Amino acid sequence: MTAPLLAIRDLRTWFHTRQGVVKAVDGVDLDVMPGECLGVVGESGSGKSVTFLSVLGLVKPPGRVEAGRVIFGGRDLAKLPPDELRALRGRDIAITLQDALTALNPALRVEEQIVETILAHDRDLPPGRGRSAAARAKALEMLRLVGIPDAERRMHDYPHQFSGGMRQRVMITIALACRPKLLIADEPTTALDVTVQAQVLALIARMRRALGMSVVLISHNLGVVARYCDRIALMYAGQVVETGPTRAVIAAPYHPYTQGLLRSMPLLSDPDRPIQPIDGQVPDLIDLEPECRFLPRCPRAAEICRQPVPLLPMGDARLAAVDPAADSNEGARISARLAAVDPAADPNEGARISARLAAVDPAADPNEGARISARLARCVRAAA
Amino acid sequence: MTAGMAQTGPLVAVRGLRKHYDLRRGLRRFTEDARAHTVHALDGVSFDIARGETLGVIGESGCGKSTLGRTVLRLLEPTAGTVSFDGADLAGLDAAAMKALRRRMQIVFQDPYASLNPRRTVEQIVGLGLAIHARPSPTRLRELVAEMLGRVGLSPAHMQRYPHQFSGGQRQRIGIARALIVEPDFVVCDEPVSALDVSIQAQILALLEELKRAFDLTYLFISHDLAVVGHISDRIAVMYLGQIVELGPARRLLQTPAHPYTQALLEAVPRVDAEAQDHRPLGGDVPSPLKPPPGCRFHTRCPHATAQCRSIAPEHRTVAPGHHVACHLYEGGPA
């Protein structure tokens, strides 16, 4: 198995406010593999942005990284001296921020902002007098690559002279100027219209292939992540609750939050499907009990949920933060195989089984597992 | 519910509605050309809304959908065109008659943070409309506010709180309570869920649907989110640069979109319920409403544009009963 490009282990980033300690990120484990696109999905306050700001050492007081390791290319970034971390940012790991208008410097021409990054980080520039001209040539090349029309003229414009979609392209240009190994795109299309969103996401996908880099796509929009990401991680109240291959997670989610999120979304393919909201709201992140954070909103909450919940392997490279005491592997294996073998099979069936096993539902019918096994056998025969 | 409900005909009828904003200020009105400084926010919009119907309006930023909602309610004065409500032309009404009608047409705003007065309690915010239109006794007013808050899923015990003490979803419930307490027939929902997280968005959508059934409401539902509009609407109008380019029954329009713009919009929406399909995103940006392109306004981005599209504005054509499209490709029946 290849080593991950970025490995986050038990990351905790807390904000020390007058009201108390806000545990914005509280024990996050995540891997980003070389060349993959990882989607990080969560609602506001779930900790998805803070997690990756912590990776880059960009959390400002009152926020503080309390614990955890961030391994990138064999080095623990949390232990790196500030100047080495600074050299690494922009060169090896780059980030684009949600609001391009505030992220870009309004008083500098776009060209200056790209050239600045190239001069700071690019090791391939010739020394001496040609250095600045070479950086400018690279900036122009990158602007053309991200599809800014009439780039030669537009590079002398200021950020406010660009439309929202074009500004986002400028930010992507700056981020990719030094051809990083990892791009963190934080809500790159949230402020954009849907046709422009499609352009920007297609651009990120194209640049990922062209540069062979890994991408972390942070979004509140499950649809965006479903279309563009190989793997998905769902965050809730500062913790990862489920990760896995995008298709598998969406076809048969294990975690009640993921299930609730999917049921609460209106679907274009079935507009008349009734939507089922998740009751209640995200908990206050101050003074949390050491229990499952979804407990107050969970339709399947049980006594066992009052204990801390680790991420459990669910087979098929999937993890979900469900009941640690349950022997859920059987149900997980079955649903994973069912989803893999028979795409036409009702994916909820497997999910229902594993979910009920996971919750140690006393009312679970033992024959249900047997029925699924039989169905699986039929699918396997049909496939063969 | 009211006498008006007994009548037949559409509840709202909009004909040739235009709203232009002159950006020239002061002396510039005399020195500069009006054509170069007029924003064509709405440019000839016509439709009916039947009683009990939800008409969804979809479009990207700057297409004029919010201006449409406000002009229909006469919160903005139209530049041209008419809006009839329950048979009465709003432009012809005097102040007293207009005030009486205002009780029957309400609005829920997009931003639950900006649309509630931060210095008023929830009781004052929700009760104000009723105090103006029905003038109940203070005790009765408080009872009615408490009842309405309960109806939208808020605790009447929170009546004395201020907006900042509530979450985004709860604030939107306050906005809905404020609109519905005067027992309107017609509610314009202007992006009521776009500022909310997915799980909270579903709560508010479910609430709007439930209240519609309970109070026999008619909605004009404005949103940029196709899935949301598709879910809640009976019919959908697609807007582009101040005009309706397509109008039809929701399911039909989503399944067999006729206008190239509607098709592009549907393709651009990332979905969880479909395999990743290779598609070519629509190029370019929406042109400036200061200088809408001649002919069909979509021709600058349309993959099928012809010479005709660049010079002649298309009329609305019928694709199927109740399904209209403004596109030259449908000249002489469906292409």
List keywords for this structure.
heterodimer, A: 384 residues, alpha/beta, Rossmann fold, eight-stranded mixed β-sheet, 38% helix, globular, B: alpha/beta, four-stranded antiparallel β-sheet, 11 helices, 31% helix, disordered N terminus
Short structural description:
The complex is a heterodimer of chains A (about 375) and B (about 325). Chain A has about 375 residues and is of the alpha/beta class. Chain A has helices at about 50-55, 80-90, 100-105, 110-120, 130-145, 150-155, 165-175, 195-210, 220-230, 245-250, 255-265, 330-340, 345-360, 365-384; strands spanning about 5-15, 20-30, 35-40, 65-70, 75, 95, 180-185, 215-220, 230-235, 240-245, 310-315, 320.
Write up this protein:
- With 384 residues, chain A is an alpha/beta fold.
- Chain A folds into two domains: 1-92 and 180-196 and 207-328, 3-Layer(aba) Sandwich (Rossmann fold), CATH 3.40.50; 108-179, no CATH class.
- Helix content of chain A is 38%, strand content 19%.
- Chain A has helices at residues 48-55, 82-88, 100-103, 110-121, 130-145, 151-154, 164-176, 194-211, 222-228, 246-251, 256-263, 329-341, 347-358, 366-383, and strands spanning 6-17, 20-32, 37-41, 63-72, 75-76, 93-96, 182-186, 214-219, 231-236, 239-245, 312-313, 319-320.
- In chain A, the strands form two sheets. In chain A, strands 6-7-8-3-9-10-12-11 form an eight-stranded mixed beta sheet, sandwiched between helices. Chain A has a four-stranded antiparallel beta sheet with strand order 2-1-4-5.
- In chain A, strand 9 and strand 10 form a beta hairpin.
- Chain B has a domain at 12-26 and 34-104 and 184-330: Rossmann fold (3-Layer(aba) Sandwich).
- The longest helix of chain B has 18 residues, at 198-215.
- Chain B has an eight-stranded mixed beta sheet with strand order 6-7-8-3-9-10-12-11, with helices on both faces. In chain B, strands 2-1-4-5 form a four-stranded antiparallel beta sheet, covered by helices on one side.
- Chain B has helices at 28-31, 65-72, 95-102, 122-133, 138-151, 168-180, 198-215, 226-232, 250-255, 260-268, 307-311, and strands at 12-22, 38-49, 54-58, 80-85, 88-89, 105-108, 186-190, 218-223, 235-240, 243-249, 316-320, 323-326.
- Chain B is of the alpha/beta class and 335 residues long.
